[in-house]
Design goal:
Layout (H helix, E strand, L loop, with lengths): L15 E5 L2 E4 L4 E4 L2 H4 L8 H11 L12 H12 L5 E5 L2 H19 L6 E5 L8 H7 L2 H4 L9 E4 L4 H7 L4 E6 L2 E2 L5 E2 L2 H13 L3 E5 L23 E4 L10 E5 L1 H4 L15 H14 L2 H25 L2 E7 L2 E6 L7 H10 L2 E2 L1 E2 L4 E4 L7 H20 L1
Parallel strand pairs: 3-15, 5-6, 5-7, 7-10, 10-11
Antiparallel strand pairs: 1-2, 2-3, 4-12, 8-9, 11-12, 13-14, 14-17, 16-17
Cofactor: pyridoxal 5'-phosphate
Pathway: Amine and polyamine biosynthesis; ectoine biosynthesis; L-ectoine from L-aspartate 4-semialdehyde: step 1/3; Amino-acid biosynthesis; L-arginine biosynthesis; N(2)-acetyl-L-ornithine from L-glutamate: step 4/4
Organism: Paralysiella testudinis
């Protein structure tokens, strides 16, 4: 197949053709076990019948009407999200980057509305990831993603992740928002400490700043709760969601309290496709399955099994120094002799019929279907063991 796409992606040496559950088949007919989940997107696996039915039914009713109108599907999804979170209002868009872009714009506008133009600083964490727009890549704090696009937006300060003292030293009357991922996904599956998130909440209250939680990867059941903030005993002022929200159909959402959302006045922000009826109908169906006690319990249980299997593999092979994460967002840190080679291990796994991810050069990342069953988990780990054996002699 001739590749006619821009060269910013390095495609794997296989082309997926069709899939079901946690199994994928290539155009050559080879079967793969998917523990990557489309980078934490395919929360119910591939082609879940409830999602297919919801999409099909909506496709026969209404595809697009723009944001000159609202739709029953958009209102139904917003109702689900607000009834089961801290939030009162929802803004729909198409991706996590767009959700974060909206969150950062709202944080600045809220501060301008209530305090004035001087209160515009956003404090974020080094090695964070918030998207690929110019604003979000600047907030992300990873020069490898932003350096080529300078000059970057100003008014952004970065502090070390989980460093309460650094946050306390940085925040002040100029700060409009503190932005945190409950688990830094792209940078190695690093969970925030309870101390850090609780301090962030308290310091934001003290300095009249907003706490923004980027739950694009951790939200919608990924950690064993609907949202990861529920593990920490804090509530944000703004939260962003995408990935698992649509179960594979593109959608993003920014959730906010009524007090904060009021600053997103008519005409202040928009999205042509945001709240698309197809996306919202699918997301409603996905939400109704994910936000069930037995589904969330399954995520926690299977996450523990997967972490235990990875630790056992690490102990026996010496390839992993640490396994960390929450629910079904897991990072296996390569031991010192294998540092920098996570991409090679991913390639070896693919050769053995297993789809996994990296989280930086030193961490193997797994973000499978929230419905991952024992058969697929065990088969996936068997393939990973074979891949590790090849990787270690390469």
């Amino acid at each position: 197949m001739q590749n006619r796409l821009t060269p910013n992606f390095a495609f794997a040496d296989m082309v997926p053709d069709h899939a079901l559950g946690s199994r994928v088949w290539s155009t050559e007919g080879r079967e793969y076990i998917d523990l990557a989940g489309g980078i934490a997107v395919n929360a119910l696996g591939h082609c879940h019948p409830a999602l297919v039915a919801a999409l099909t039914a909506q496709a026969h009713k209404l595809w697009h009407v723009s944001n000159l109108y609202t739709t029953e599907a958009a209102q139904a999804l917003a109702q689900r999200l607000t009834e089961h979170s801290f939030a009162d209002k929802v803004f729909f868009c198409n991706s996590g980057a767009e959700a974060n872009e909206a969150a950062f714009k709202l944080a600045r506008k809220y501060a301008r509305d209530h305090a004035g133009a001087h209160k515009h600083e956003i404090i974020a964490c080094t090695n964070a990831f918030h998207g690929r727009t110019l604003f979000t890549v600047s907030v992300g704090g990873q020069p490898k993603y932003s350096a080529d696009f300078a000059p970057l937006p100003a008014g952004i300060t970065h502090i070390p992740f989980n460093d309460v003292a650094a946050l306390r030293a940085a925040i002040g009357p100029q700060t409009c928002a503190v932005v945190v991922e409950p688990i830094q996904g792209e940078s190695g599956v690093l969970p925030a400490s309870a101390e850090f998130l609780q301090a962030a909440r308290a310091l934001c209250d003290e300095h009249n700043a907003l706490l923004v939680l980027d739950e694009v990867q951790t939200g919608i059941g990924r950690t064993g709760k609907l949202f990861a903030y529920e593990h920490y005993g804090v509530e944000p002022d703004i939260l962003t969601s995408a990935k698992a929200l649509g179960g594979g159909f593109p959608i993003g959402a920014m959730l906010a309290s009524e007090r904060v959302a009021a600053s997103l006045s008519v005409g202040s922000h928009g999205s042509t496709f945001g709240g698309n009826p197809l996306a919202c109908a699918v997301a409603c169906a996905a939400f109704d399955i994910i936000n069930q006690p037995h589904t969330l319990a399954q995520v926690a249980a299977q996450g523990q099994k997967l972490q235990a299997a990875l630790r056992q593999l690490g102990e026996r092979s010496g390839v992993f120094a640490q396994v960390r994460g929450q629910g079904l967002l897991i990072g296996a840190v390569l031991a010192e002799p294998y540092q920098g080679r996570a991409g090679e291990l991913v390639a070896a796994a693919l050769q053995h019929g297993l789809m996994v991810l990296v989280a930086g050069p030193n961490v193997l990342r797994l973000a499978p279907s929230l419905l991952l069953n024992d058969e697929d988990l065990d088969a996936g780990m068997a393939r990973l063991r074979a891949a590790v054996a090849d990787f270690q002699v390469a």
